[in-house]
Amino acid sequence: MRLTVSFIPFVFFANAIFSLIALWFYHYILFIVAFFGGERQKVSLARLLVEPAGLVILDEGFSSIDLTTTQNLLTTLFNSEIQTVILVSHRPIEVENFNFIHIDLGKRVTENGR
After folding, report:
1. What are phi and psi of 33, to 5 degrees?
2. DSSP strand pairing (101-105 vs 84-88)
3. Of 19, 32, 52, 89, which has the maximum CB count within 10 A?
């Protein structure tokens, strides 16, 4: 008696596993991309607080985040190990606790210092 092995069930099973992995990966990437601007900014700031740097430059870093959360994040940022923060912002309330403020309107410096 000769035994024959069919690869059809194996191929079907392998394709099913591959499809599940591909589907999971697609949804994982889609989940990351589906973050709105404020959520992306919060994730970036959280990463910054987990691995602090000596110098942080934030260009409109809080523009898509509500004011209460912005103030909480700034307080946490000031209490962290980060030594220097350069923040570009259009909201004056975000810069009120900084040591040095430079206000630039157009091509003219209108205010400099604290």
Report:
1. -70, -25
2. unpaired
3. 89
Statement: residue 28 has pLDDT above 60: no
- Residues 9-41 as b/e (b if ≥16 CB within 10 A, e otherwise) read eeeeeeeeeeeeeeeeeeeeeeeeeeeeeeeeb
Q: Which of 13-17, 23-27, 45-49, 72-76 is modeled with the greatest confidence?
A: 72-76
Q: Mapping DSSP to helix (H, G, I), strand (E, B) and coil, where does residue 108 land?
A: strand
Q: What tens digit of pLDDT does each residue of 56-93 get? A: 888 887 787 888 888 888 888 888 877 788 888 888 88
